[in-house]
Amino acid sequence: MSTPASRTPASRHHKRPRGEGQWALGYREPLNKNEENKKNDDGLNVRQRIIDIYAKQGFDSIDPADLRGRMRWYGLYTQRKPGIDGGKTAILEPEELDDSYFMLRVRIDGGQLDLAQLRVIADISNEYGRGTADLTDRQNIQLHWIEIESVPDIWERLEAVGLSTTEACGDTPRVILGCPLAGIDSGEVLDATEQIQEINREFIGNPEYSNLPRKFKSALSGCPAHCTVHEINDVAFVGVVNEQGEAGYDLWVGGGLSTNPMLGKRLGVFVKPEQAADVYGGVIGIFRDYGYRRLRHRARIKFLVNDWGPEKFREILETEYLKEPLPDGPAPELPRGSRRDHVGVFPQKDGNFYVGFAPKVGRLDGDKLHVIADIAERHGSSRVRTTVEQKMVVLDVAPDQVDSIVAALEENDLQVRPSTFRRQTMACTGIEYCKLAIVETKASAANLIDELERRLPSFDQPLTINVNGCPNSCARIQVADIGLKGQLVVDEHGEQVEGFQIHLGGSLGVNAGFGRKVRGLKTTAKALPDYVSRVVTNYDTQKKEGESFAD
Ligand code: SF4
């Protein structure tokens, strides 16, 4: 473990850019409302108020600064009041959009769940969340319709099985992504589980790191398919083997999408597994101390990395935070295969099999989570995983159980051999619950999948379709083959209706790049299946041998 000295606040001798609100440069006075709220009281402190006051006295007793700020430190967001259309999203005051119910995000670091944990989430969903349970594209499970009165009981039940909602949202180190196959994939560079757990123990819920300039997204993985999308995390540790044959990590910083998408940058260092927590501490310390706090939309670490460049970032990390240089290291190998989702049946290194399946657009429910747990148990498995593609994986299936578990999952519409469209379409929460949304997403995406399967039954090329309800890119539109950004559009009758701006040709991996936003390329939500099937048909009929959609 690190010494405290390795994580001391930064010195103050760097050139002072004007007014970005960087703590390390002496700007301690809050420069906006969010910073003021965080300074007034740390987000982690809301937990006791929820237990002692809000859960007892009800929704109306909640302090507005807690309601729209600190609640997030425990994965709680107010839902959008039903019936408010997307045209009002930008013009109404936040309180006019707030419902008295909450979305609750359960963090699942590394996507690792045992069946007891899965069943507890299922029970909470059924008892307190009207049966809702959405798999997110960051390995969490999100519940809706949660009332403040039930939160202490929910926490007690989650915590009894080692789960938590701490820092699932907010300006904090959020869930740490990990490969769902960590420890079982015969091709993995290394198993990052221990480092994920160590970082979780040391940094999550730690008041030293609970007031960051903005959210902080992390990934650690030795996955040969690069399934944790390291290119678009704030910090990512990517498994590599150095010249001496040692397995460790290549360090990436400053990736992120949203309205100013940037790909992460390699620092060119080799991080030994036993150094990972210290290095994580250094990176998050830099973000806390040097991150821009003046403007929320420039506060993610990617802006700092972009301004400094990877060389300066590395120098500050080594000299001010780690107090020692890191050796140079290699870049990751090219990813295995053209899909990163782990859907299907594949051998584990111990002779058993893992079985990945695709619910439609990540939408499950409490009963279905119980069904998954029962099916896994009946087939001798005690572990499941969530993926970063809104999918799940059952581990440790004996060879003679594979056919039976595949049949059982498929009977429940948990498809193990889905179409490309079911497999590679994701959708964010959208207007059903999200206060920032402009359009509906989950039902539109589910309908799109059904239509594409009906119209193009033999299409089997890799093709990602990501559907977002607003420009925030929770469903990663810029790195999809077909990215759909929700907005209001004008239909053929001149009416404003829900629709999408189209981004084409984004990708991660070898040729990582953002999709092209073609000016004027928009569709109404109603015409979406026609539009996408035309695009896919054109690609399918005109592509050359080996040409991907992004090419
Ligand atoms: Fe909400 Fe926008 Fe994120 Fe979708 S992309 S979940 S609409 S903030």
TrEMBL record:
Residues 30-40 have a biased composition (Basic and acidic residues). SUPFAM superfamilies: Nitrite and sulphite reductase 4Fe-4S domain-like, Nitrite/Sulfite reductase N-terminal domain-like. Keywords: 4Fe-4S, Heme, Iron, Iron-sulfur, Metal-binding, Oxidoreductase, Thioether bond. Its cofactor is [4Fe-4S] cluster. Residues 169-324, 422-551 form the Nitrite/sulphite reductase 4Fe-4S domain. Coiled coil: none annotated. Residues 1-40 are annotated as: Disordered. PROSITE patterns: NIR_SIR (PS00365). Its EC number is 1.8.7.1. It is an enzyme of class 1 (oxidoreductase). It catalyses: hydrogen sulfide + 6 oxidized [2Fe-2S]-[ferredoxin] + 3 H2O = sulfite + 6 reduced [2Fe-2S]-[ferredoxin] + 7 H(+). The keyword Kinase does not apply. Residues 98-161, 347-411 form the Nitrite/Sulfite reductase ferredoxin-like domain. Catalyzes the reduction of sulfite to sulfide, a step in the biosynthesis of sulfur-containing amino acids and cofactors. Belongs to the nitrite and sulfite reductase 4Fe-4S domain family. This is assimilatory sulfite reductase (ferredoxin). It comes from Nonomuraea rosea. The gene is sirA.
